[in-house]
Every structure is written in C-alpha cells, then in structure tokens.
Input
Amino acid sequence: MRKYEIMAIIDPDVNERQVSPLVDKHLQVITEGKGTIDAIDIWGRRHLAYPINKKHEGIYVLLNVTATPAVVQEFDRLMTIDEQVMRTKVMRMDAK
Output
C-alpha cells in the first residue's frame, strides 16, 4: 500500500451540496479495494489559472488516500470518465 495525494477539480455548475456525495461515490472504489481515506479537504470554488472547457472556475477537492497502485489507477479512470469532474491529478507521496 502506498500513500497518494489526489487533486480533483469539479465542474462549477455542480451544486456545492452535491460535491461531497459525488466524491464519496468515487471513494467507494478505494474502500472496496482495501484502501483507506486519510483526509478529504474541499477547498471550494476557486478561479482557474486558465479556462477548462470554457469555464473559469472550479471546485477544488484534495484527497489523501492509502491504497495499491491498481486501485488508485481505477479511481482515476472513473473520475476521468465522470462528466462532472473537469481534471484530476494523482501524486504518489514519497516514503520517508
């Protein structure tokens, strides 16, 4: 199991109340794969550095998880398919 930091940008058209259920729906992949969710930090609506899909804002979500590489890859694949998710970035945290 490795530690990962995942940043996701959710479409600003999504209601702020729907962000947590949307993220929880995708996090089921991590828990079903015997991984753990260490932290969920919803930053809220922020201005983007450049437009994505002609949108200038997005809802930022930062996730810290511990899981196997295959589970995280599947999580990222499902987030990419979801039309409500504009971008994802997965970073492996280095062991110290």
In short: The chain has a mean pLDDT of 92.
